[in-house]
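Hey, quick one: can you model this chain's 3D structure?
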Amino acid sequence: MEYPIHEKGKFKYIEEGQGTEVVILLHGLFGSMGNYSDLIAGLKSKYKLIVPLLPIYELSRREISMSALMEHVHEFIQGEGYTSIHLVGNSLGGHIGLLMSLKDPNLVKTLTLTGSSGLFENALGGSFPRRQSYDFVKKIAEGTFYDPNVASKDLVDEIFETVNTPTKGLNIILTAKSAMRHNLEQELHKITAPTLLIWGKNDIITPAFVGEDFNQKIKDSELHILDKCGHAPMMEHPQVFIELLEEFLSRHVLS
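Sure thing. Here's the predicted structure for all 255 residues.
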């Protein structure tokens, strides 16, 4: 299901649900706001769900950095007047969630990471040339999931268009390089927010051992590894993801 996109100044976002607890969903590098459609449908009766569009393609080459993306999201949250949020981030979105938790620990009530960068990632095999054949892009997209059929034609078409648009393709590469440089290994012990880790056992971009490493380095975090699951558990096993997230949030919404 597609949800309407709101625009407020430089910010674009989806907002669904009427709950008093606010859950911010952060997408990955090649992800989009639509990656969380199943989660929105499953959670909007209990929570206010907001999916900001990361300005990966809008930033100039000089501006591109993990910090700039985090500051964009932080500015949006502050502008909306939220003082306590739950953050959920996939891949690059998880990385941004970690940075925000370090920057403003009083803001982040809970943190959920799934296939997050920040420690180690195989960034699409190490590089992503600006132009490639459609079959190559399709293979890369399918490799994101355990079940290649999850990579719909619309998803492949969107990625193909992105990497074949010179400015977008370059920004993707520069953002990926920034994420790989911005390693958070020495900072993770500072995370104070209750943290849920949901990982795909068959993730080839941020393998399961990365989730285990986060689990060791973030105090009192809890890790769930899903079988027959790749880099985007919320898309490949949405119902399991929703159940784990709901149970986790239920323990912290009143704390």
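One thing worth noting: The CA atoms of residues 165 and 220 lie 43 Å apart.
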